Batch of 4 targets.
Target 1
Amino acid sequence: GSLERRSCLYLRTGRACCQMVEVLLAALILVCSSVSSGSAGGYTGLPALGGIYYYQYGGAYSGFSGADGERAQQLDQSFYLLKLPIARAAMAVGGCLLVFPCVLILVGVLRVPWYFPAWLLIECTLYVVIAVCTVPALYYFLHSLLSVYNSSVCKEREQLYQSKGYQGFWCSLHGAEIAAGLLGCMAAMAYLLSAGLAVRDYRTVHEQKQKPLQL
């Protein structure tokens, strides 16, 4: 079997391929979470980006002046601070989910499961636990974001920008946040698949280790 071959061939097994998919999904979740946090504020942040953003949003926000400009800045900063803990938590989870399959790939390359078959059962248990915990984590992520978007800060911010003709400041989930949720669901399914593959490989290793005894 593949588990008896040279360690480099582990990367060609089904379990390793699934783990590499998990790495990709975790990386995308991390990116989408960082996008969700945004900058410290649209009014003060977008002109600093220059280029297409500067011209798309009307130069230095010429529609704002005096008290309106100061209020826009305050609302941007308040909105940013409301979303920041959620984004940081999502980024932390994405980082952990990125490290976990990387460690398992290294374990597989070093052929630890062949010398210690019980590791595959531990791996299966970890995958099941993570897959189950992903569901409430996604609920908390989306529910917290919706709470921020339903806040008075977001509503006032949306109305202020719309009154000046600026678009893109709606109080609703944007593409990166929706993508993070979908990627989380895909990751949970990948974890369950990896759990099944770990059980299959455990049986394979157990059978192969019993062959010399049968001879």
Target 2
Amino acid sequence: TSDTVPLSPLPAGPLPSPKELINGNIKTITEYREEEDGRKVKIIRTFRIETRKASKAVARRKNWKKFGNSEFDAPGPNVATTTVSDDVFMTFITSKEDLNCQEEEDPMNKLKGQKIVSCRICKGDHWTTRCPYKDTLGPMQKELAEQLGLSTGEKEKLPGGTAPL
């Protein structure tokens, strides 16, 4: 708040310097000024000091050195060089329906249901070299093939047709 109070006649000479008084969270600034018509006026401004918490990123930015026209300004924004603009609202060109249509046309989605890689040991959907059962199932398949009198190569070809001699 600001109050302007006309002063009783002050002695001629320089006006008193501004005074700043802080009492708790109330800051009072007292200034003296001479009006155009020759009256001397006392201006009392009262401010309430508020402490606001900011994020760490904002606190770091506040400590940056000012540059350009604001290089020698005091901390905080300067109304001569800083403007606060209106909120900007974004308008999206594509809608959610368009995005859903694009997902259906994606060729990778068609392949998701199919098995691309097949393990020769356990028939799982991973590479044979990365089979978690290769140490246990691999030797068992070899033993079974030897018991039946087939080599591993002949075992794979037998169900599909006759093996070459």
Target 3
Amino acid sequence: GSSWNNCDFEANLCKVLPEFNLQPGWIRRNGQSGMGPPYSDHSGNESAYFLSLSSEMQSSSAALRTRVFLPTDEHHLCQMRFHYWVSQMSGTLIVGLQKDSEDIFTNIWQVSGELRNQWNVNTITINSTEKFEVIFLGMMETQRQGESVAIDDITFSEGC
């Protein structure tokens, strides 16, 4: 509901995804951009915006980092809900947790190819005893026409 911090990408990025955290490789666009699928956002709106991997990516992966969140506890359940599109074969989307004291992020969820070309939704409950960032890592093994990795409507619960 309205209590969730929501990133729908309509105006720009939101408070939990600062502008400078959009690393090269991710692009904010809509389905009418002429960049291939998806041709609409998760609600079917062709002019509504989402993030997708750019076809001009220099490397095969691109990270998207949230701001730093405070530790979670039993009173502050942190849930993150997001819509995702991973087209067939070569696309992968990983969600990771970057904790304050660790150099590398911990993979907490991942999906690869073999999905039909459609938007899906997922909710992840995050537990961390220390400050953390959430990382979305999109990867494309090959740049085939008509393949894409995209994210839309990321929402964080009040406990985050």
Target 4
Amino acid sequence: CFNSGSSWNNCDFETNVCKFLPEVNLQPGWKRRNCQSGMGPPYSDHNGNESAYFLSLSSEMQSSSAALRTNIFLPTDEEHLCQIRFYYWVSQMSGTLMVSLQKHSEDTITNIWQFSGELRNQWNINTITINSTEKYEVIFSGMVETQRQGASVAIDDITFSEGC
């Protein structure tokens, strides 16, 4: 059960990209947009608000994949696991969204969650719990097949628990 009080830090993309996701970590394929941007689906944020902003990766971009890195988080402990909750949209059959973890001492990036497009175009919600004994970064990666019309991957309202 989520306590939406002050212990959760929310990234809703309404004004910019929040402090957990520095602008420098936003690869060119991601675009902060809303329905009025005229870029194909989704046509609203996860609340159905057409003027609200979200991040999206669209097949109209030259880049077919892009990553979004968080700041470096401190190690977690039993009392403070890092939970990251987010809304995601993956258009049918041609998009993939992955969440990965990169620990400070390793070059390798470990995939911890992945979703590929299903038949229905809708916003979904997911929560990931991270347990790490060392500093780490979380990476959201979107991919779309650029040949497809209206193919998109979008992400909205990324919320970080106080353990992050």
